[in-house]
Amino acid sequence: MSQLTTQAATAAQDQTGSVTVNGKFITYTVKGNIIIYSDGKVAAPAIASTDFKRAYATAIVPPVAPPVDPDFVSIGTGSGQLILEPLANTNVKIVPGNYSYIYVEKATNVRMDATGVVLNGGSIDIGQADNFELWGASITDQTYRAISIENHSNGIYLHDISFKNVGDYTISYHYKGVYDGTDASTSKDWKLERLTFENTSTGFHCDGAFAAEGIVNLMRNFKFLNCVVKNCPGIGNVVYVGQADGYEIAGNIMDNINTRYDDPNAPNGYHNGIFHLDGNGSFHDNKITNHQGNAIRAWGVSYGAEVEDISIYNNIVWNSWKYSAFELQVTPEIQDYLAAYPSRIKPANAQVYNNTAGHLNRSHDWEGVMIDLYQTGGTLEYYNNLGFEMYREDVSRPIGDMINMGGPQMIRNENNLYFPSQQEAVADTVTFLSLIPGVGAQ
Predict the structure, then answer these.
(1) What stretch of H or E contains 123?
(2) DSSP run (H or E) holding 56
């Protein structure tokens, strides 16, 4: 480049001026390697030394970079594996992109924003965590497990995460510590919220056991809220928790689950509760349609000296291949444990009220009723429930409340209404609006 050309380029870099394009007056400034026009467009400098109007014809509006939250630290490269050493007292943002694997060795007081993170065939493993929040990721086409947490963890909050085509437990917790009667020996304050599951196996699995050495892995204050589970023909249990003290299952929508017909002689082949929890807590405001399995298999247990409650209310359950709407039971094995260790566990009392259920047990293997009721050792309050199109073998008999297999003491049983047709009970099979004031889901 000649000295004259170099001088001209230098002058152009410092130059300001204006051009008129289609009658519009536009100013410009040359800064470094770009020309900045007053309407926000930028152009490359190669043409700048000769014609700024011509340069404007090539100008573009640059993409706006998302604002950087100063409270979040960016991690990751947008691809490959992300292996993280222990994190504490921090907020992190995973750079969006397609990852094959994410591993968090330990997280203490950590918020992790995974918005825009996709794991196609990948997974997230967490060693141990306390007060850990994760959201935004999408995990698809994983033949094994999507999210696993290995060691004793509390305060886990997983929300706004989507799962599709997962072959094994979608979310699993593997700790197996023994409850010694103290709060510190429980796994407490887990919340799974606004998760979506499509064509997955079990949504959340957490083992627990009645062992000679004690209650194994007691989950305290576990919540599964406002999740959507759809088109999962082989999910079995949406949630299984082996020991749960004070659970809340609420606001969830499930449709078209457990519908696989592997054996034409035993359609679906599952013997399941969609939610299956040993313990005590509440199950309310859920909608479960086109499915197989009791909406909840609630095996009632109280831990310690106080007798706790199981409350099942304001749920909609419709169109099941097998089983009644709900199951209450204390199995013979739990009864034996209660007798052997009365200081460890007690029965639980139950309230079942203001639920709507219809078109149950289409397989005709059993009668379709509101509750499959077995021995529980506690009391039962049962009122304001609404049923319709419940299968019964002898149509000359009225629809019954429940299959009672030596069940609990009924301390309230009133205002439960049943109708042979949907049109007499609810407005439609979308909203399930009750036609009977005060009866059924409200």
Answers:
(1) strand 123-135
(2) helix 52-56
Query: What are the tens digits of pLDDT across the range 294-327?
Result: 999 999 999 988 999 999 999 999 999 888 999 9
How far is it, in rounded angstroms, from Cα 378 to Cα 278?
14
Beta strand residue intervals within 180-293, DSSP E: 187-188, 191-193, 196-200, 204-206, 209-211, 214-216, 219-220, 223-225, 228-232, 239-250, 253-257, 273-284, 287-291
Residues 30/50, Cβ–Cβ less than 8 Å: no
What is the per-residue pLDDT across 34-71, written as a single tens digit (0 to 9) for each?
A: 788 888 888 865 544 567 888 888 787 776 555 556 78
Report whether pLDDT(9) > 50: no
pLDDT at 67: 53
* Per-residue pLDDT at 105: 96
Residue 311, amino acid: S
At 325, the amino acid letter reads: A
Asked whether the beta carbons of 131 and 152 are under 8 A apart, the reply is no
Length of the chain: 442
Hey, which bits of 285-436 come out as E strands? 287-291, 294-300, 302-303, 309-313, 316-320, 326-329, 345-346, 349-353, 356-360, 371-374, 379-383, 386-390, 402-405, 409-414, 417-419
